[in-house]
């Protein structure tokens, strides 16, 4: 099945309501398989590449906080949709020179992976008189193409974060390997959970609530089975994206 068949484009509020209900039902079933309660898992709809007019339909169907991976695109939509009570999450790699924009409007940031970026965000958040919820990104697949800290760098990194009091640490984030091998995908999620559990045991103050942001359209059920607290789902809600953004997900070599 192609992505277009699997993820038809949502073009009306009814389409969005149906897709959201289907994703929620799948989330609940995955949570139940793991003996967890589905209402404890937050769905973060990812609206990257989706024009503002279609985001309005999604908002009418109940989407209030949206994930975007490019700051300029997010900032533009934030302005275009300023009449709606929407909140924005930046979920992708961030360059330091974009810290000011993020500090100005974002509610959460899922890809913190360097102290220099933490410093830049802190400075801009002080100026903006704001705080930002952050998830620390870990590279659990070991792929050179993925951002994030190596697992063995995590503890030292977390020990530095209390110095940045405008950043409110919510937990950890990862992207699983893009692979048809379900066990390799699961292994990435499991590693993130193990890192969280170990940190909680050894240094419980470093991780805030210790949430796990993991899982997207193709793998959110596995992520929930492995303990995801936030799943970032785009295509299963909005419809397939053009393949031109395949560069976000380099094919495995
Ligand atoms: C695009 C993206 C997602 C969502 O991917 P879908 O396949 O649309 O569900 C999740 N996380 C990150 C970091 C992304 O960039």
Automatic annotation (TrEMBL):
The keyword tRNA processing does not apply. Keywords: Pyridoxal phosphate. The keyword Protein transport does not apply. The modification N6-(pyridoxal phosphate)lysine is found at residue 48. GO terms for molecular function: pyridoxal phosphate binding. Coiled coil: none annotated. Pyridoxal 5'-phosphate (PLP)-binding protein, which is involved in PLP homeostasis. Belongs to the pyridoxal phosphate-binding protein YggS/PROSC family. This is Pyridoxal phosphate homeostasis protein. It comes from Brevibacterium rongguiense.
């Amino acid at each position: 099945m192609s992505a277009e068949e699997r993820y038809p484009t949502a073009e009306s509020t009814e389409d969005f309501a149906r897709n959201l209900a289907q994703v929620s039902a799948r989330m609940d079933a995955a949570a139940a398989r793991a003996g967890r309660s589905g209402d404890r898992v937050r769905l973060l709809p990812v609206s990257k590449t989706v024009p503002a007019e279609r985001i309005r339909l999604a908002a009418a169907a109940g989407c209030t906080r949206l994930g975007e991976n490019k700051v300029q695109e997010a900032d533009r939509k934030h302005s275009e949709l300023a009449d709606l009570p929407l909140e924005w999450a930046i979920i992708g790699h961030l360059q330091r020179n974009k810290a000011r924009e993020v500090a100005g409007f974002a509610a959460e940031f899922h890809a913190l992976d360097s102290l220099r970026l933490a410093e830049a965000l802190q400075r801009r958040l002080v100026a903006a008189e704001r705080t930002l919820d952050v998830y620390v990104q870990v590279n659990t697949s070991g792929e050179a193409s993925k951002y994030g800290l190596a697992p063995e760098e995590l503890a030292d990194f977390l020990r530095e974060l209390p110095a940045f009091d405008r950043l409110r640490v919510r937990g950890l984030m990862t992207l699983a390997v893009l692979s048809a091998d379900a066990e390799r995908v699961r292994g990435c999620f499991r590693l993130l959970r193990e890192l969280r559990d170990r940190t909680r045991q050894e240094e419980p103050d470093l991780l805030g609530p210790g949430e796990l942001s993991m899982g997207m359209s193709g793998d959110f059920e596995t992520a929930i089975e492995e303990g995801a607290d936030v799943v970032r789902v785009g295509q299963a809600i909005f419809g397939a994206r053009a393949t031109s953004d395949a560069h976000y997900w380099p094919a495995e070599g």
